[in-house]
Amino acid sequence: MSQAAFLGLGVMGYHMAGHLAHAGHAVTVFNRTRAKALQWSAQFGGAVAACPAEAAADADAVFCCLGDDDSVRAMVLGPDGALAAMRAGAVLVDHTTASAGLARELATLAREHGGGFVDAPVSGGQAGAQQGILTVMAGGDEADFARVEPLIRSYARTARLLGPSGSGQLGKMVNQICVAGVVAGLAEALHFARRAGLDAEAVVDVISRGAAQSWQMDNRHRTMLAGEYEHGFAVDWMRKDLGIVLDEARRNGANLQATALVDQFYAEVQAMGGGRWDTSSLLARLERETEDNA
């Protein structure tokens, strides 16, 4: 059993922290909305801290799963932040999808404080967090990763160290490039099927057994065809992620023409009022555009 702190109980962190508690670890949580932390404690039996520093003070590992770079800095480095309170040898694990630059910054600060750091963004969505089958892409020192990997395995089916600090975030960027391209292709495919007069459900049933198969096709085609988007990974968050990707591409010289185009498509979905829709709502954009041009 380890002493663990978990900062941020959103749709992902709530369940990840719960799996840590179910695995037998002593978990203390902090959430900016205290009522959510109290709800978590009532469900899983862990402790609730008044601030990030209090949560982190006695922990062997401090986990956070937040919204963006600024949220991480506020929770880890701000007044009553976690890092200053962490004891020597403790490891900070950031599951936020954030920039590689932030990961390197936190790694340096953690080492200066006598601890360790692992950037460990996740893939698998809310369903993966609930089921404890997330995929974790990690960056950091091998020794730090080895110490926290058994805890991460409480909620992850796959966890792999990809290289030094920042490598986990870079790996997540690769993931988001792939997801954006696949969703855009699926949206166009379903749109084409409908315009061609095909039974789109029947077509998907056939092609999903071949090379076109994907997680997005298996899990999103039915809701896309039904025009249901009030679920899943929000367009606003995908645009945040793609912004990080495109910033990194400008730094490293990668040519991401298709990704930049899909990012523009998502901006159009936001303009339609779909910022909180699932990313599969690219089909709604195509159908709106077709109606407008009719």
Can you walk me through this structure?
This protein is of the alpha/beta class and 294 residues long. It has two domains: 3-163, NAD(P)-binding Rossmann-like Domain (Rossmann fold), CATH 3.40.50.720; 171-293, Orthogonal Bundle (N-(1-d-carboxylethyl)-l-norvaline Dehydrogenase, domain 2). The chain is 56% helix and 14% strand. The protein has 14 helices and nine strands. The protein has helices at 13-22, 34-44, 52-56, 69-77, 82-85, 100-112, 125-131, 142-152, 167-195, 200-207, 215-226, 235-252, 257-271, 282-293, and strands spanning 3-7, 26-30, 47-48, 61-64, 91-94, 116-119, 122-123, 134-140, 156-163. Helix 9 (167-195) packs parallel to helix 14 (282-293). The longest helix has 29 residues, at 167-195. The mean pLDDT is 97.
Classified in CATH, the superfamily of the largest domain is NAD(P)-binding Rossmann-like Domain
Number of strands: 9
- Measured on Cα atoms, how large is the radius of gyration? 20 Å
CATH architecture descriptor of the largest domain: 3-Layer(aba) Sandwich
Beta-strand percentage?
Answer: 5-15%
Helix and strand pattern = EHEHEHEHHEHEEHEHEHHHHHH
Poorly predicted tracts of residues: none
CATH topology of the largest domain: Rossmann fold
> If you average the pLDDT, what whole number results?
97
The CATH class of the largest domain turns out to be Alpha Beta
Amino- and carboxy-terminal Cα gap: 63 Å
Give the number of helices: 14
Q: What's the shape? A: elongated
